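User: C-alpha coordinates for Isoaspartyl peptidase/L-asparaginase, please.
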Amino acid sequence: MNKQTLVIHGGAGTILRENMTPEMEQAYRQGLEDALKAGYQLLEKGGTAIDAVKAAVVSLEDNVLFNAGRGSVFASDGSQEMDASIMDGSNLMAGAVSGVKNIRNPVELAHVVMVNSGHVMLTGDGANAFAASSGIQTEPDEYFFSQLRYDQWMQVRGTTNAALDHNVQVKDKKFGTVGAAACDQFGNIAAATSTGGMTNKQWGRVGDSPIIGAGTYANNNTCAISCTGHGEIFIRAVAAYDVSCLMEYRGMSLQEAMDKVVLDKLVKMEGEGGMIGVDAKGNAALVFNSAGMYRGIWNNAGVKQVNIYKS
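Assistant: Done. Predicted C-alpha coordinates:
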Protein backbone atom coordinates (compact mmCIF):
# COMPACT_ATOMS: atom_id res chain seq x y z
CA MET A 1 0.00 0.00 0.00
CA ASN A 2 1.22 3.46 -0.84
CA LYS A 3 1.78 6.09 1.79
CA GLN A 4 -1.45 8.05 2.21
CA THR A 5 -0.60 11.74 2.43
CA LEU A 6 -2.46 15.03 2.53
CA VAL A 7 -0.83 18.46 2.52
CA ILE A 8 -2.65 21.79 2.66
CA HIS A 9 -1.89 25.51 2.62
CA GLY A 10 -3.85 28.61 3.55
CA GLY A 11 -1.64 31.29 2.01
CA ALA A 12 1.89 32.61 2.36
CA GLY A 13 3.59 35.96 2.94
CA THR A 14 4.92 38.17 5.69
CA ILE A 15 3.38 36.16 8.51
CA LEU A 16 5.28 37.00 11.69
CA ARG A 17 4.73 35.74 15.21
CA GLU A 18 4.98 39.25 16.65
CA ASN A 19 2.04 40.40 14.54
CA MET A 20 -0.22 37.54 15.61
CA THR A 21 -2.27 37.45 18.80
CA PRO A 22 -2.43 34.07 20.57
CA GLU A 23 -6.15 33.92 19.85
CA MET A 24 -5.70 34.59 16.13
CA GLU A 25 -2.87 32.08 15.85
CA GLN A 26 -5.00 29.43 17.50
CA ALA A 27 -7.89 30.22 15.14
CA TYR A 28 -5.67 29.76 12.09
CA ARG A 29 -4.19 26.55 13.48
CA GLN A 30 -7.67 25.19 14.19
CA GLY A 31 -8.76 26.06 10.65
CA LEU A 32 -5.81 24.16 9.22
CA GLU A 33 -6.44 21.18 11.50
CA ASP A 34 -10.11 21.09 10.49
CA ALA A 35 -9.14 21.04 6.81
CA LEU A 36 -6.60 18.27 7.33
CA LYS A 37 -9.19 16.21 9.18
CA ALA A 38 -11.82 16.75 6.48
CA GLY A 39 -9.51 15.47 3.76
CA TYR A 40 -7.48 12.83 5.55
CA GLN A 41 -10.47 11.01 7.03
CA LEU A 42 -11.56 10.28 3.46
CA LEU A 43 -8.13 8.83 2.62
CA GLU A 44 -8.30 6.64 5.73
CA LYS A 45 -11.64 5.26 4.55
CA GLY A 46 -10.22 4.36 1.15
CA GLY A 47 -11.30 7.55 -0.59
CA THR A 48 -9.57 9.00 -3.62
CA ALA A 49 -7.01 11.77 -3.74
CA ILE A 50 -9.52 13.92 -5.64
CA ASP A 51 -12.10 13.47 -2.88
CA ALA A 52 -9.52 14.36 -0.23
CA VAL A 53 -8.24 17.56 -1.82
CA LYS A 54 -11.76 18.74 -2.58
CA ALA A 55 -12.91 18.14 1.00
CA ALA A 56 -9.87 19.89 2.47
CA VAL A 57 -10.31 22.94 0.24
CA VAL A 58 -14.06 23.09 0.95
CA SER A 59 -13.22 23.27 4.65
CA LEU A 60 -10.83 26.17 4.03
CA GLU A 61 -13.35 27.92 1.76
CA ASP A 62 -15.94 27.71 4.55
CA ASN A 63 -13.56 29.38 7.02
CA VAL A 64 -13.81 33.18 6.93
CA LEU A 65 -10.15 33.53 7.98
CA PHE A 66 -8.89 32.40 4.57
CA ASN A 67 -9.16 34.34 1.30
CA ALA A 68 -11.29 31.80 -0.56
CA GLY A 69 -15.01 31.10 -0.58
CA ARG A 70 -16.60 32.76 2.43
CA GLY A 71 -13.50 34.79 3.31
CA SER A 72 -12.92 36.22 -0.17
CA VAL A 73 -11.68 39.78 -0.54
CA PHE A 74 -13.53 42.65 -2.25
CA ALA A 75 -12.85 43.65 -5.85
CA SER A 76 -12.84 47.31 -6.98
CA ASP A 77 -16.59 47.30 -7.63
CA GLY A 78 -17.38 45.89 -4.18
CA SER A 79 -18.08 42.38 -5.46
CA GLN A 80 -16.36 39.20 -4.37
CA GLU A 81 -15.08 37.18 -7.31
CA MET A 82 -13.59 33.75 -6.79
CA ASP A 83 -11.30 31.41 -8.72
CA ALA A 84 -10.58 27.70 -8.23
CA SER A 85 -9.10 24.67 -9.96
CA ILE A 86 -8.67 20.94 -9.42
CA MET A 87 -6.68 18.26 -11.25
CA ASP A 88 -6.63 14.47 -11.17
CA GLY A 89 -3.14 13.03 -11.62
CA SER A 90 -4.44 9.60 -12.61
CA ASN A 91 -5.87 10.80 -15.93
CA LEU A 92 -4.74 14.45 -16.29
CA MET A 93 -8.34 15.63 -16.17
CA ALA A 94 -8.78 19.14 -14.79
CA GLY A 95 -11.48 21.70 -14.09
CA ALA A 96 -11.32 25.39 -13.24
CA VAL A 97 -13.50 28.46 -12.78
CA SER A 98 -12.64 32.14 -12.58
CA GLY A 99 -14.54 35.29 -11.70
CA VAL A 100 -17.51 33.46 -10.19
CA LYS A 101 -19.81 35.08 -7.65
CA ASN A 102 -22.01 33.79 -4.83
CA ILE A 103 -20.69 30.23 -5.20
CA ARG A 104 -20.32 28.80 -1.71
CA ASN A 105 -17.52 26.41 -2.68
CA PRO A 106 -15.80 27.27 -5.97
CA VAL A 107 -13.66 24.12 -5.78
CA GLU A 108 -16.83 22.02 -6.02
CA LEU A 109 -17.82 23.93 -9.15
CA ALA A 110 -14.34 23.37 -10.60
CA HIS A 111 -14.77 19.65 -9.95
CA VAL A 112 -18.13 19.58 -11.74
CA VAL A 113 -16.55 21.43 -14.68
CA MET A 114 -13.91 18.68 -14.81
CA VAL A 115 -16.39 15.82 -14.60
CA ASN A 116 -19.47 17.03 -16.46
CA SER A 117 -18.78 19.96 -18.78
CA GLY A 118 -16.39 18.66 -21.41
CA HIS A 119 -14.28 21.77 -20.77
CA VAL A 120 -11.39 22.71 -18.51
CA MET A 121 -12.15 26.33 -17.56
CA LEU A 122 -15.35 28.37 -17.34
CA THR A 123 -15.41 32.06 -16.43
CA GLY A 124 -17.76 34.72 -15.11
CA ASP A 125 -21.44 34.64 -15.99
CA GLY A 126 -21.05 31.45 -18.01
CA ALA A 127 -19.51 29.64 -15.05
CA ASN A 128 -22.28 30.89 -12.78
CA ALA A 129 -24.92 29.73 -15.27
CA PHE A 130 -23.29 26.30 -15.42
CA ALA A 131 -23.28 26.22 -11.62
CA ALA A 132 -27.01 26.93 -11.56
CA SER A 133 -27.71 24.16 -14.07
CA SER A 134 -25.55 21.76 -12.04
CA GLY A 135 -27.20 22.41 -8.69
CA ILE A 136 -24.10 23.96 -7.11
CA GLN A 137 -24.89 25.65 -3.80
CA THR A 138 -24.95 29.44 -3.79
CA GLU A 139 -25.13 31.96 -0.98
CA PRO A 140 -26.30 35.60 -0.78
CA ASP A 141 -23.77 38.44 -0.64
CA GLU A 142 -24.20 38.65 3.14
CA TYR A 143 -22.71 35.19 3.60
CA PHE A 144 -19.40 36.36 2.12
CA PHE A 145 -19.20 39.62 4.07
CA SER A 146 -16.30 39.99 6.49
CA GLN A 147 -15.61 43.22 8.35
CA LEU A 148 -11.87 42.57 8.07
CA ARG A 149 -12.06 42.17 4.30
CA TYR A 150 -14.31 45.23 4.01
CA ASP A 151 -11.92 47.36 6.08
CA GLN A 152 -9.02 46.23 3.89
CA TRP A 153 -10.93 47.29 0.78
CA MET A 154 -11.74 50.66 2.33
CA GLN A 155 -8.01 51.36 2.64
CA VAL A 156 -7.49 51.18 -1.13
CA ARG A 157 -10.99 51.82 -2.52
CA GLY A 158 -11.12 54.56 -5.14
CA THR A 159 -7.49 54.03 -6.16
CA THR A 160 -5.95 51.90 -8.89
CA ASN A 161 -4.01 49.95 -6.26
CA ALA A 162 -4.73 46.28 -5.84
CA ALA A 163 -3.46 44.44 -2.77
CA LEU A 164 -2.15 40.90 -3.12
CA ASP A 165 -2.36 40.30 0.60
CA HIS A 166 -4.93 39.51 3.25
CA ASN A 167 -3.91 42.69 5.05
CA VAL A 168 -2.97 45.67 2.90
CA GLN A 169 -0.48 46.76 5.54
CA VAL A 170 2.91 45.71 4.20
CA LYS A 171 4.06 44.53 7.62
CA ASP A 172 1.52 41.70 7.48
CA LYS A 173 1.50 40.81 3.79
CA LYS A 174 -0.22 37.51 3.12
CA PHE A 175 -1.03 36.05 -0.27
CA GLY A 176 -4.59 34.80 0.02
CA THR A 177 -4.99 31.37 -1.50
CA VAL A 178 -5.87 27.94 -0.15
CA GLY A 179 -4.99 24.57 -1.57
CA ALA A 180 -4.38 20.86 -1.05
CA ALA A 181 -2.48 17.98 -2.60
CA ALA A 182 -2.95 14.30 -1.78
CA CYS A 183 -1.79 10.76 -2.50
CA ASP A 184 -4.26 7.94 -1.88
CA GLN A 185 -3.73 4.23 -1.16
CA PHE A 186 -3.78 3.44 -4.86
CA GLY A 187 -0.88 5.78 -5.63
CA ASN A 188 -3.12 8.29 -7.38
CA ILE A 189 -2.46 11.96 -6.68
CA ALA A 190 -4.47 15.17 -7.05
CA ALA A 191 -4.31 18.88 -6.29
CA ALA A 192 -6.78 21.73 -5.84
CA THR A 193 -6.48 25.49 -5.30
CA SER A 194 -9.00 28.23 -4.49
CA THR A 195 -8.83 31.99 -3.95
CA GLY A 196 -10.74 35.24 -3.64
CA GLY A 197 -7.97 37.01 -5.55
CA MET A 198 -6.71 40.52 -4.89
CA THR A 199 -8.29 43.23 -2.77
CA ASN A 200 -9.57 46.02 -5.07
CA LYS A 201 -8.69 44.06 -8.21
CA GLN A 202 -9.87 45.63 -11.46
CA TRP A 203 -10.50 44.72 -15.12
CA GLY A 204 -11.37 41.10 -14.39
CA ARG A 205 -7.87 40.20 -13.20
CA VAL A 206 -7.17 36.47 -12.90
CA GLY A 207 -4.22 35.07 -10.98
CA ASP A 208 -2.51 31.69 -11.08
CA SER A 209 -4.96 29.75 -8.90
CA PRO A 210 -7.40 28.65 -11.65
CA ILE A 211 -4.71 28.17 -14.29
CA ILE A 212 -3.64 24.57 -14.78
CA GLY A 213 0.15 24.41 -14.80
CA ALA A 214 0.58 27.71 -13.00
CA GLY A 215 -1.25 27.43 -9.69
CA THR A 216 -2.33 23.78 -9.85
CA TYR A 217 -0.98 20.65 -11.50
CA ALA A 218 -1.18 16.88 -10.96
CA ASN A 219 0.35 13.95 -12.83
CA ASN A 220 0.80 10.48 -11.34
CA ASN A 221 4.16 10.20 -13.09
CA THR A 222 5.57 13.17 -11.20
CA CYS A 223 3.71 15.25 -8.63
CA ALA A 224 0.62 17.13 -7.49
CA ILE A 225 1.18 20.81 -6.70
CA SER A 226 -0.86 23.72 -5.30
CA CYS A 227 0.69 27.19 -5.22
CA THR A 228 0.19 30.40 -3.27
CA GLY A 229 1.90 33.68 -3.96
CA HIS A 230 2.28 36.56 -6.40
CA GLY A 231 0.02 35.14 -9.09
CA GLU A 232 1.35 37.07 -12.05
CA ILE A 233 4.86 35.74 -11.51
CA PHE A 234 3.67 32.20 -10.82
CA ILE A 235 1.86 32.34 -14.18
CA ARG A 236 4.97 33.59 -15.99
CA ALA A 237 7.04 30.89 -14.30
CA VAL A 238 4.44 28.17 -15.03
CA ALA A 239 5.38 27.27 -11.48
CA ALA A 240 3.37 24.14 -10.75
CA TYR A 241 4.15 22.45 -14.06
CA ASP A 242 7.82 23.41 -13.83
CA VAL A 243 8.15 21.21 -10.76
CA SER A 244 6.72 18.32 -12.76
CA CYS A 245 9.10 19.04 -15.65
CA LEU A 246 12.15 19.03 -13.41
CA MET A 247 11.09 15.67 -12.01
CA GLU A 248 10.24 14.14 -15.40
CA TYR A 249 13.07 15.44 -17.55
CA ARG A 250 15.89 16.01 -15.06
CA GLY A 251 15.16 13.22 -12.62
CA MET A 252 14.86 15.46 -9.59
CA SER A 253 13.01 14.38 -6.46
CA LEU A 254 9.88 16.26 -5.41
CA GLN A 255 11.81 18.18 -2.75
CA GLU A 256 14.66 19.07 -5.12
CA ALA A 257 12.30 20.27 -7.85
CA MET A 258 10.18 22.37 -5.50
CA ASP A 259 13.28 23.90 -3.94
CA LYS A 260 14.58 24.79 -7.40
CA VAL A 261 11.36 26.51 -8.44
CA VAL A 262 10.49 28.28 -5.18
CA LEU A 263 13.91 29.12 -3.78
CA ASP A 264 15.75 29.83 -7.04
CA LYS A 265 13.58 30.47 -10.10
CA LEU A 266 10.83 32.44 -8.39
CA VAL A 267 13.26 34.39 -6.22
CA LYS A 268 15.14 35.53 -9.32
CA MET A 269 11.82 36.72 -10.77
CA GLU A 270 10.95 38.47 -7.47
CA GLY A 271 8.06 36.07 -6.99
CA GLU A 272 7.16 35.70 -3.34
CA GLY A 273 5.12 32.79 -2.03
CA GLY A 274 5.26 29.03 -1.85
CA MET A 275 3.75 25.69 -2.81
CA ILE A 276 2.84 22.31 -1.41
CA GLY A 277 3.22 18.99 -3.20
CA VAL A 278 3.11 15.20 -3.09
CA ASP A 279 4.36 12.45 -5.37
CA ALA A 280 2.80 9.07 -6.12
CA LYS A 281 4.81 7.39 -3.34
CA GLY A 282 3.25 9.69 -0.78
CA ASN A 283 6.34 11.83 -0.29
CA ALA A 284 5.49 15.45 0.49
CA ALA A 285 7.15 18.85 0.46
CA LEU A 286 6.04 22.28 1.65
CA VAL A 287 8.34 25.05 0.39
CA PHE A 288 8.09 28.84 0.59
CA ASN A 289 10.38 31.84 0.19
CA SER A 290 8.29 34.20 2.32
CA ALA A 291 8.36 34.75 6.08
CA GLY A 292 5.60 32.22 6.63
CA MET A 293 2.98 29.98 5.08
CA TYR A 294 -0.14 28.55 6.67
CA ARG A 295 0.36 24.84 6.07
CA GLY A 296 -0.26 21.33 7.31
CA ILE A 297 0.53 17.68 6.61
CA TRP A 298 -0.98 14.36 7.67
CA ASN A 299 0.14 10.91 6.52
CA ASN A 300 -0.09 7.31 7.65
CA ALA A 301 3.60 7.23 8.55
CA GLY A 302 2.86 9.09 11.76
CA VAL A 303 3.31 12.68 10.62
CA LYS A 304 0.52 15.08 11.57
CA GLN A 305 1.22 18.78 12.08
CA VAL A 306 0.30 22.32 11.17
CA ASN A 307 2.71 25.25 10.99
CA ILE A 308 2.61 28.96 10.25
CA TYR A 309 6.05 30.49 10.64
CA LYS A 310 9.36 29.76 8.94
CA SER A 311 11.05 28.28 12.00
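User: Anything notable?

Assistant: Residues 278 and 284 are 4 Å apart (CA to CA).
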